[in-house]
Amino acid sequence: MSTTIKKPTASWRVVDIVVAAVVSVACGVIFWLWDQAYAGVEVATAAFAPLSGLYSGGWLLAGVLGGLIIRKPGAALFCEILAAVVEALLGSQFGVTVLLSGLVQGLGAEVAFAIFAYRRWNLGVALLAGGLSGLALGVSEVIQFFPTWEFGWQLAYTVFAVISGIVIAGLLSWLAVKALAKTGALSAFASGRAADV
Fold first, then answer.
1. Within 13 Å of residue 29, how many CA atoms lie on the same side as its CB?
2. pTM for this one?
């Protein structure tokens, strides 16, 4: 089966904006719920704090999922930022730093889709988007929150964030789009009609 589609259009339709907003709000709620469990993760990983990077993929869902559904330049970035805004408005314990995180993580996913000129939407691209988003998260969080860690710990945290991004954001987003496409819920989108889903 082909995983390449015709040249994408950069213009957004009203349905693109509405669905991107719905995806973002839903993911923003997930982000906030993910925040609530983080204290437990910190306790569980206290002996080797970089392991907490394995938990980070939940904060990367919006960009990968939005990009896979909308398939337009800027969709991953838009969804990740808007989800971060919702997370902040719900009262994230991380405060407004989540807005910067949304920007950086959304750019990571956006780069993966841009590498393939917004024409390939297979599992490999979804995993790459999750991985690059995880890389962006890992690097930015090491700089912001863990600058005093030794380099080995910083590297381990970043590697774990990449793995988490690949599995949680990349794989789960791709499976979610595939499942939604089968229901017909994405029929207004190329993601709901393409052979690669």
1. 5
2. 0.89
